[in-house]
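Exam prep: given the inputs below (a chain plus tryptophan), describe the expected output before reading on.
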Amino acid sequence: MDTNKKRLLTGDRPTGRLHLGNYFGSIINRVKLQDQYACFFMIADLHMLTTDFDRTQDIKENILSIAIDWISSGINPEKSVFFIQSKVPAHSFMHLIFSMLVSVPRLERIPTLKDKVKESRFSDENAYSYGLLGYPVLQAADILAYKASVVPVGEDQISHVELTREIARRFNYTYGEVFPEPRAILSETSRVPGIDGINVKMSKSLNNEISLSHSFKEVRDRVMKMVTDPAKIRLTDRGHPQVCTVFSFYNILAAPELIDQVKYECENGQIGCVACKERLSELVNRLIEPIREKRFELERNPSGVWDILHEGTKNAIFTSNKTVSEMISKMKLNY
Ligand code: TRP
Ligand code: SF4
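Solution:
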């Protein structure tokens, strides 16, 4: 890892296998950024507990699966550090220190809280956990433990990076300069819809996803199930690609000439939806095929993948402990 480069940190919760929404929303972006920055890619298992504290059954398997998806889609563990959040003590310590530097009303105003409360295992809206309220503070600890300059996230996470900047400022002002203020970077790719409609986000919990580990046949079946323009029934009917899920996928993954061609053929009643979907399923499969192959290979050697995670975690512990030492000394807790 090149230590002169600026640092980048981002993470995924270990909720299951990654899908095309994750791929176009963040993974491709990371593949590009890994050469530009010293990257820390974290598996956020503690974050997962903030909503799913009693669903720990599959976490271990999901951690492995995420690491496999990262590597299969081109994130290189020789260039970047892969690590597991809960194995790095600095995150928990910093979360606690930072929790003194932020007010409860400030956390209650964070826009993601309401959604998280709905997802959470505390169904009563007024009785969400202390840990869930502090979720963005934990995220600030994740970022600042590595003094990351950039944090690639989805739009919904911008408010968390803003809070991180406030916490960094408050710490620096109170105890002395330790932290740089990180900047969020948004990935350029548009939102990927689910197979059930252009206005629904792809998500595993809605079972509308195409995952990077789906088989050839599963991919095809899911593409064939996609919601199209309801006004186009026969091949010769004129369709409206802008309301069609299939077309939004062409938009994301086809070459510009093919996008224009599909649009033309659809609008002029020259192609039927079945043929249009078949062509799309080939495109999707062509994209996923190399990822699937690599995944298959890694699945045969899980201990190699765990080694990568353990090595990365050692590196993360080393790096974040330096930050903790600086904090302790500025805070005059060095006894
Ligand atoms: N909160 C993020 C999510 O739910 C995951 C995450 C945890 C994260 N810590 C982070 C992302 C730090 C960026 C930086 O997707
Ligand atoms: Fe959608 Fe293609 Fe059917 Fe047009 S032809 S409505 S783009 S599936």
